[in-house]
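Please check our next protein.
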Amino acid sequence: MDDVGALGLARVERTKSVLQWVDIAIIVGNAQDFDHYEEDLIHEAIQLGTPTILALNKASLYPASSTFLDKIHTLGLPFVQTDAQDRLGVDDLRQAIITLAADHIPKDRLLVGDLVGAGDTVVLVTPIDTGAPKGRLILPQVQAIRELLDAHAKCFVVQQDKVSECLNELRNPPKLVMADSQVIMDVAAQTPENIPLTTFSIQMAYSKSDVIAMAEGTAALASLQDGDRVLICETCSHHPQKDDIGRVKIPRWLRQKTGKNLEIEVAVGKDFPIDLSPYKVLIQCGGCVV
């Protein structure tokens, strides 16, 4: 935080950018060396709305005066006095983290469990392609199965070439069909119109974010023009596959859908550009394997 020079300032800005995406920030300082660096970081975290705890470490070596503690109180965030060497206040810090998480981190909505009741039948369509993890399913597929079991619903899991066969074998129509986005057109062609149909991506958007804002963002794709920049943001730093969805399929679909010559870039992990204003649309993955 106290780096100098042009490169140092760039490092400082990159460090501060972390406050935009962390769930909880723990700012560590001590009563003797606490100065404007810590205060600026605290004020920035507060402005961003990032839940923050101040850990006043080395408390045995540098005891905090009453004047200093009064100053800390004016900052308006929880603080704990700790000493890593003597293990002083470690349990208090853990409890402060638990309390802050419970009070300030919103809980995700259910993926599909609130759409069904006990005894309902749901068909999940999960294609196995080169991008599928070996020997397991991705997170939203596992999450959907678990939520349906918790709801005491019946769950059928098939690939896209077995949808018609599965539906025909059921005595009664399922309450819902949920498919992977990349096979939705194939699945829609096999699913009667009287059976509700959704995708894992739509349900993840509903579960983890503002689905109305996501729909508005999707509608903005229709206004893209030649030369517009689109940023695809991926959570994990996996090795790209031959037909990678983020680097191959989505760019291909975007150009086919819009008919425009778009400039499409990919950001991986937390390495996002600090300035997002040049981009017309951001496409964020749902973190399906993290």
